[in-house]
Amino acid sequence: MSFESLGLSAPVLQAVAEKGYTTPTPIQEKAIPIVLMGRDVLGCAQTGTGKTASFVLPMIDILSQGRAKARMPRTLILEPTRELAAQVAENFETYGKYNKLNMALLIGGVSFPDQERALERGVDVLIATPGRLLDHFERGGILLNDVKILVIDEADRMLDMGFIPDVERIVATLPTLRQTLFFSATMPPEIKRLADRFLSNPKEVTVSPPASASNTIVQGMIVVPEDDKRDALLALIKSQEVKNAIVFCNRKRDVATLHTVLKKHGLNAGALHGDMSQPARTETLEKFKAGDIQILVASDVAARGLDVQDMSHVFNYDVPFSPEDYVHRIGRTGRAGKTGHSFTLAAPHEGGLIEAIEKLIGTTIPRIEIPGLEVLQLEAGDGRRRGRGGRGGRPGGRSGAPAGDKPRGPRREPREPREHREPRPEVSAEPQAVAAEAPREASHEPRPERAPRERRPERAPRDHAPREQAPRENAPREQRAERRPERNQERRSEPRRDRDDGGPAPKGLGDHVPAFLARPSR
């Protein structure tokens, strides 16, 4: 089947042909006609199968008619990471160059004014991460009541990163009558329930078993001590014909450390992780895609959406904690039907993680050996997720023991009952400093008797004249007035004076009047 048979317009077909594609992938072949019909789609396909083009190409045709309004996008595409959002934006620029469509990219690390100016011009396609989109929405800079098509891409990654509550808030602000396209590489029960809430009578499109590795990827695994992982990685890079490769680490600090090690050994390496600024991340990715960087040491921010032509190798320096992440990592190679290679470096205590990965992909990862390095066996997993252990794979290292299993000191023996305990030895009175700190009950010396205190002479009683009780404030007003007739009569007889008439001094201040009270007011 060719792209012409899918019902796409001539401008889109021309852009696809210039890109060099002639035959659609299975997910594109099944999803594009359904999207053009206006139906909801639930797509599940492994990474590297062309899911992005399966919704970008028909959306360009749908948006070719109509006009966008200021701050009211016509379509919305949600992506979990900045890299994925930028990847989708590149696809729209490539395939929509013969269609006059406005596009805006709302991601973190970019100034708000630039994004607000793009929204003011009116956008046909809005590509955003959930957090930055909600920031603009809460500021009143965007209205979502004119969205006709909603795309939720990499939904399983949204779940892993904790974005599902934000996605639910965004969907609640959208019109009920809309077309929703829901794509995910894996379909766990949580994602399935989420799709049932967002989609209306969807057409399910599945082109491969969920979370399966591509047949074009040659996999391998080396089981070595934790201390030998760096030597094993360097030996693999030197023994393989590496055109370009990504080395995945679980932690950001390990990315920086391993990047420094590779640079010291004369390798052309770069680093990419979530703590880098957006301009630095974009610059590093551009250099890697252009071939200026041969080996990219990265965290899982590069596990999805990163499309590099003819990537030859993927190295898992750390075994991923989630089995699905393994499928996404190795999916960066072996794309578009070309052969790729992936190698995983595992420590013996990571046997549980390897068991979960092999159970998910339905096959055993072949073990390989490296000359000169000790090859070990994986320890049996106990069903609990473990982080990477300490140096040498010993439990209880930096994070080798899971939460709640930290190594403790020697266990105390249980105490004997009180009636069976031996009496404590008496505390010696020497030295004097120790005896001073001991409790008084421990001292058996008799206390010196104190002399009796002399009694003070009793004072003669004073004669107190009875004082007149002041009237209570809570008494009735008439009763209080009767008790103070002279004062009330004086108040009635005095004429009212203004502040600046030079009257008598205010009462209660004596002979001295402060200047600020005596000064006439303007």
Description of the structure:
The protein folds into two domains: 204 residues, P-loop containing nucleotide triphosphate hydrolases (Rossmann fold), CATH 3.40.50.300; 177 residues, Rossmann fold (3-Layer(aba) Sandwich), CATH 3.40.50. The longest helix has 14 residues. It is α/β, with parallel strands linked by helices and 522 residues long. Helix content is 33%, strand content 11%. The strands form two sheets. A seven-stranded parallel β-sheet has the order 3-4-2-5-6-1-7, sandwiched between helices. It has a six-stranded parallel β-sheet with strand order 8-13-12-9-11-10, sandwiched between helices. Helix 2 packs parallel to helix 3. About 11% of the residues have low confidence. The chain is extended and about 120 Å long.
- Based on Cα principal axes, name the global outline: extended
Please state how the strands of the largest beta sheet are arranged side by side. 3-4-2-5-6-1-7
> Helical region count?
18
Number of beta strands: 13
User: Quick one: biggest sheet?
Assistant: 7 strands, parallel
Structural class: alpha/beta
Helix content: 25-40%
Q: Average pLDDT value?
A: 79
Keywords, please?
522 residues, Rossmann fold, 2 domains, seven-stranded parallel sheet, six-stranded parallel sheet, 18 helices, 13 strands, 11% strand, extended
